[in-house]
Specification:
single chain, 4 strands, mainly alpha, globular
Length: about 240
């Protein structure tokens, strides 16, 4: 069966559309992350246990990423950004791994990973690149920030401008490609499971479980890579030495 996206036109304009499943799953990801963070920090203890212990481990993990890319005195302001990106992207990546839900005779795909939509990942990457420019100007000043584009030699300016666009595309498309490919393969395994009745269903159980486990691993790795590259790009704009 072919899955279709529930897309609607906005204001009756054919080229201005919105994917309702992407919007729904983005909201669900946001709610899941919010509830998880509230539960993990609701009753803080000096000797952490349970969710608090896990959240403190995540915070230390993000601190390590920042410390590897820039001076902590400069980078500590980016801890909330890195923590939010890591948790949100990981949750978004794995939502479509567990189950995919289609509705109606047209088989509209409603439950999926929001990061399997390039509009989401490219928006995230564009937001990161814009933030790097903002903090570059804020920390170095306008003059100091603009000097980074003509150092060490002025003729590198065109290449550095191209690099900004390339970073936006690669950061977003890398995440999209990995998650989208995982969902495509899960869909193919599902088709195989229902193609020939009970026999094919039994044969598809192990591949399904194995790929779901691998997809969880990929979801975590891709969240880590996104945050790592975010901090690398940020360090290029705010650090004197990188």
């Amino acid at each position: 069966m072919d899955h279709k996206a529930p897309i609607i036109e906005l204001f009756g304009i054919p080229w201005l559309t919105a994917n309702l499943s992407t919007i729904l799953m983005t909201l669900i990801s946001t709610i899941v992350v919010f509830v998880f963070c509230v539960m993990a920090s609701r009753k803080l203890q000096m000797k952490p246990t349970g969710l608090q212990n896990f959240m403190e481990w995540v915070v230390d993990f993000v601190k390590g990423i920042i410390g590897d890319t820039m001076d902590w005195k400069t980078g500590k302001v980016f801890l909330p950004l890195g923590l939010t990106l890591l948790v949100y992207i990981f949750v978004s990546n794995i939502l479509g791994v567990m189950v995919m839900v289609t509705v109606g005779e047209e088989h509209y795909l409603w439950w999926k990973s929001p990061t399997s939509d390039p509009s989401v990942t490219l928006t995230l990457s564009a937001m990161i690149i814009i933030l790097t420019h903002f903090y570059g100007v804020k920390i170095k000043g306008t003059k100091g920030y603009l000097k980074t584009y003509i150092e060490p030699v002025p003729f590198l300016l065109p290449l550095k401008i191209i690099e900004e666009f390339a970073n936006t595309l690669t950061l977003g498309l890398r995440l999209f490609g990995n998650i989208f490919a995982g969902e495509i393969l899960l869909g193919l395994i599902t088709k195989m499971a229902i193609a020939f009745g009970a026999f094919s269903f039994i044969g598809a159980i192990l591949p399904m479980i194995a790929w779901q486990g691998f997809s969880l691993f990929i979801g975590g790795i891709q969240a880590f890579i996104f945050v790592m590259l975010t901090m690398v790009y940020m360090s290029h704009k705010v650090s004197s030495d990188h």
